[in-house]
């Protein structure tokens, strides 16, 4: 069977549908709908287009800017860098008519859902099913997986959403109300269970990027972990059916869902690494720790054939010709431990030399002043006397477009393939969606909440010690904080933190002064730095969730807006 990336030349077939249009399912290569549903191979190509729902490096392919960065700039991890623009509208605050680059999330996900539902409505009675039921039932399981995965993303943004279970025709009632959050979770889990019963446990290398049983179980694990969290507890605000998950055994369900993955892989150790370079390489190609990813290469980028949807150029420092669109915050950088496992609030950390003696992942994940990157040191510093020393190449007075120079004194190194040029591709480079380290951290967190601290320590240490940190021995609330720190560091820039801080209701990491380091080269050649406030990000309690777009609210009286909007 063909590797999934080679058929993504069809990826633009469906992206221009809007929720107001009548669904046109006719293939754009002049094949009729009847032909597609009569041929298992053509039907497979139709399924491949729905893999667009898994997304990629860009947050929003319908907008020029956000094809080139993702949700990390709206999290504790980073900020949008270019000219300090408020692209996510976090400083201005969201309203139903303006959520910045989040504006198409609702339409985008429901467009994918509609395409999947059309397939599921037609496939059982299709000629293709009669010709090759084994293959077509597998395709059907892939579509159920994609349906559940898409709904799982919708409820993270909006809480309970309208559960559409069949493709709507022009004769159907479009006055659809929102389902409860709990009903949405149950629907997602049901579809994942059904998909997992049919999908293969794993795929051969030439099918990297296609759904598996492990992938379905991983989506279930994340969904139930989120559902068990504080944000969805009836005792927290906002509350009510659109937001609450009510189950006495919710943490047990979350633990069991993670354990289902762990049982399949044999609770094995993560791939060992020896240094920052070998750790960084884990994110550049397919490997056994990746459960589900979207593969990139010479054919597939995030938007047509636009290579700038990859991160080599869009996240590299400005002096290299990079766009540096997401600047990691100094607040986030301080979460990285020292190499002996102590924190930056303890004795080994020296604020005058913040890049010395840090844990291995610091060097693999961040570009900082003095980092060796692409055959030279990164230079964010400004000179105290330019007659003696020139300003740094990556400073506001350096090379390239100075509006792209880092405002925080950091850039993202993770996912950068330094063996390739800024506008070159890497065969099969994965945009990672689910991986084993997350499952171990899911299991650790759920077991902590169940009072099983020994199990929690065992699994958080599978992640921490792989990163060459000493074993975590903490108990009680300190253990929970250690688990959360591991999620922030190990899973950074992979789309987790924006939602993690919300589900933990940790407002200190949602509204805060975004800090940076401003570097100087003194006349004697020494380097100094000062901590600065780059921007202040306020917090509004309504922003635990996105508002339903006002255009959707205006269509029907039955669609209830989220609290606070």
Please provide a written account of the structure.
The protein is globular and about 80 Å long. It contains 17 helices and eleven strands. The protein is α+β, with helices and mostly antiparallel strands. β5 and β6 form a beta hairpin.
Q: Stretches where pLDDT falls below 50 for ≥5 residues?
A: 1-30
- Strand segment count: 11
Distance between the termini: 48 Å
Task: Report the sheet with the most strands, covering strand number, pairing sense and barrel closure.
Answer: 3 strands, mixed
Order of helices and strands: HHEHHHHHHHEHEHHEEEEEEHHHHEEH
The pLDDT mean sits at: 92
SS summary, helix count = 17
Write a brief structural summary:
The chain has 565 residues and is α+β, with helices and mostly antiparallel strands.
Summarize this structure as a short list of keywords or feature phrases:
565 residues, alpha+beta, 3-stranded mixed β-sheet, two-stranded antiparallel sheet, 17 helices
Strand-helix topology:
Layout: H1 33-36, H2 40-50, E1 78-80, H3 105-123, H4 127-131, H5 133-158, H6 181-196, H7 213-228, H8 250-265, H9 276-281, E2 290-296, H10 311-315, E3 326-328, H11 330-333, H12 360-365, E4 366-368, E5 372-373, E6 376-377, E7 382-383, E8 410-412, E9 429-435, H13 436-449, H14 453-464, H15 476-490, H16 497-503, E10 512-521, E11 527-537, H17 550-553
Parallel strand pairs: 7-10
Antiparallel strand pairs: 1-3, 2-9, 4-8, 5-6, 10-11
Helix pairs in contact: 2-5, 3-5, 5-6, 5-7, 6-7, 7-8, 7-13, 8-13, 13-14, 13-15, 14-15
């Amino acid at each position: 069977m063909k590797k999934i990336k080679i058929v993504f030349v069809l990826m633009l077939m469906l992206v221009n549908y809007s929720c107001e249009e009548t669904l046109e399912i006719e293939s754009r290569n002049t094949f009729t709908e009847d032909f597609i549903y009569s041929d298992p191979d053509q039907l497979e190509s139709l399924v491949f287009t729905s893999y667009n729902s898994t997304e990629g490096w860009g947050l929003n392919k319908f907008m020029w800017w956000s094809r080139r960065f993702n949700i990390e700039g709206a999290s504790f991890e980073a900020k949008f860098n270019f000219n300090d623009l408020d692209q996510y509208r976090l400083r201005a605050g969201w309203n139903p008519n303006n959520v910045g680059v989040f504006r198409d999330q609702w339409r985008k996900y429901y467009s994918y859902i509609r395409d999947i539902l059309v397939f599921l409505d037609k496939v059982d009675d299709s000629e293709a099913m009669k010709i090759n039921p084994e293959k077509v039932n597998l395709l059907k399981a892939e579509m159920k997986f994609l349906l559940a995965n898409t709904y799982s993303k919708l409820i993270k943004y909006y809480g309970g959403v309208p559960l559409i279970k069949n493709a709507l025709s022009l004769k159907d009632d479009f006055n659809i109300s929102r389902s409860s959050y709990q009903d949405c979770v149950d629907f997602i889990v049901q579809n994942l269970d059904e998909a997992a019963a049919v999908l293969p446990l794993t795929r051969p290398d030439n099918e990297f990027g296609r759904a598996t049983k492990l992938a379905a179980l991983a989506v279930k694990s994340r969904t139930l972990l989120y559902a068990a969290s504080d944000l969805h507890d009836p005792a927290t605000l906002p509350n009510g059916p659109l937001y609450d998950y009510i189950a006495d055994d919710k943490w047990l369900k979350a633990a069991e869902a993670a354990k289902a993955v762990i049982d399949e892989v044999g609770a094995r150790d993560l791939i060992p690494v020896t240094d920052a370079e070998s750790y960084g390489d884990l994110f550049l190609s397919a490997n056994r720790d990746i459960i589900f990813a979207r593969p990139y290469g010479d054919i597939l980028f995030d938007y047509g054939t636009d290579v700038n949807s990859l991160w080599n150029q869009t996240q590299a420092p400005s002096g290299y010709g990079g766009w540096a669109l997401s600047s990691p915050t100094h607040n986030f950088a301080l979460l990285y431990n020292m190499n002996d496992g102590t924190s930056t609030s303890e004795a080994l950390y020296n604020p005058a030399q913040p890049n010395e003696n840090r844990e291995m992942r610091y060097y693999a994940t961040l570009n900082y002043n003095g980092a060796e990157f692409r055959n030279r040191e990164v230079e964010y510093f400004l000179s105290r006397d330019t007659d003696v020393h020139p300003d740094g190449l990556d400073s506001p007075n350096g090379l390239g477009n100075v509006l792209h120079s880092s405002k925080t004194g950091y850039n993202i190194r993770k996912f950068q393939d330094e063996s390739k040029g800024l506008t070159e591709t890497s065969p099969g480079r994965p945009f990672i969606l689910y991986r084993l380290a997350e499952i171990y951290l899911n299991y650790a967190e759920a077991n902590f909440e169940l009072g099983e601290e020994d199990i929690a320590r065992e699994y958080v240490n599978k992640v921490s010690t792989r990163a060459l940190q000493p074993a975590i021995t903490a108990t009680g609330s300190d253990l929970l904080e250690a688990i959360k720190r591991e999620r922030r560091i190990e899973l950074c820039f992979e789309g987790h933190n924006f939602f993690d801080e919300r589900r933990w209701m940790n407002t200190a990491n949602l509204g805060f002064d975004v800090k940076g380091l401003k570097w100087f080269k003194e006349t004697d050649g020494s380097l100094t730095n000062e901590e600065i406030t780059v921007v202040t990000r306020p917090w509004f309690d309504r922003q635990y969730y996105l508002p339903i777009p006002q255009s959707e609210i205006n269509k029907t009286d039955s669609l209830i807006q989220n609290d606070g909007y």
